[in-house]
């Protein structure tokens, strides 16, 4: 459903992505792993139109979306959960969720659909419903991550891009969030591209993975293979 073909992305003279090609099938969970600065966030931002590619092509459901603006890309069905959550801290949980759906307001019927989607987010994350009137900035890191995911879901995406959702969270909370990602794929057929520092947890969740080093994909494979790969073990999985 998503294909990147020979993508090159630059920040001025910095050549951040070098001929990156990758693909995701419908309903797959795929993870990108790599050290700090390898280009993982840049891949997500290139897909979402935040940092457009200098050359190459991004195809979503066979249509080119390479040169589209981020709002158009959201309308196509691609939604991003940014690194560091970036929820609107002075706003309530409910208002944050409403903002996630703002591109969808056209008429009164839309509101009904949006209410239904919010109820669905509350089913996935009951804690958000309990705290619907709480200001986002006063919530814990885990709750803010749940809210950031909930807000992205309010755009009704077919493809969800997640940037380091586990960052700074306790293992139990990470497990809870990963269980929701699995459920989203199983029950809603959402396709997921997951960037993670926590390679072990990410590979356990994902079907496949790509390993990125200084802007290039150096390895790809089924998660089970990557978990057994000596190079991956040495560089990214640590000792156990
Ligand atoms: P991290 O895990 O630290 O977020 P990453 O793998 O997501 O790392 P990117 O953030 O994609 O890596 O960065 C890839 C490269 O592009 C790095 O060398 C980084 O310094 C550079 N880079 C990223 N953003 C900018 C920017 N706005 N201006 C200039 N260079 C940038």
Automatic annotation (TrEMBL):
SUPFAM superfamilies hit by this protein: P-loop containing nucleoside triphosphate hydrolases
Keyword Transport attributed: yes
UniProt keyword annotations, A-Z: Amino-acid transport, ATP-binding, Nucleotide-binding, Transport
GO biological process: L-amino acid transport
Record bears the keyword ATP-binding: yes
GO MF entries: ATP binding; ATP hydrolysis activity; branched-chain amino acid transmembrane transporter activity
Stated name of the protein: ABC transporter ATP-binding protein
Source species: Oryzomonas rubra
């Amino acid at each position: 459903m998503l294909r990147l073909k020979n993508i090159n992305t630059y920040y001025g003279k910095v050549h951040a992505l070098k001929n990156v090609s990758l693909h995701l099938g419908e309903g797959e969970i795929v993870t990108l792993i790599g050290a700090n600065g390898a280009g993982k966030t840049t891949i997500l931002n290139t897909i979402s139109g935040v940092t457009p590619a200098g050359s190459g092509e991004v195809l979503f459901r066979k249509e080119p979306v390479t040169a589209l603006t981020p709002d158009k890309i959201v309308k196509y069905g691609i939604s991003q959960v940014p690194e560091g959550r970036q929820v609107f801290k002075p706003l309530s949980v409910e208002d944050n969720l409403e903002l996630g759906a703002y591109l969808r307001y056209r008429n009164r019927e839309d509101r009904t659909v949006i209410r239904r989607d919010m109820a669905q987010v509350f089913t996935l994350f009951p804690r958000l419903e309990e705290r619907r009137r709480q200001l986002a900035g006063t919530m814990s890191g885990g709750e803010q991550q749940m809210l950031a995911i909930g807000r992205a879901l309010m755009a009704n995406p077919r493809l969800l891009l997640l940037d380091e959702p586990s960052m700074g969270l306790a293992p139990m909370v990470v497990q809870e969030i990963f269980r929701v990602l699995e459920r989203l794929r199983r029950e809603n057929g959402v396709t997921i591209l997951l960037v993670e520092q926590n390679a072990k947890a990410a590979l356990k969740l994902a079907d496949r993975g790509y390993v990125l080093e200084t802007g290039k994909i150096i390895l790809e494979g089924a998660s089970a293979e990557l978990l057994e790969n000596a190079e991956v073990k040495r560089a990214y999985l640590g000792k156990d």
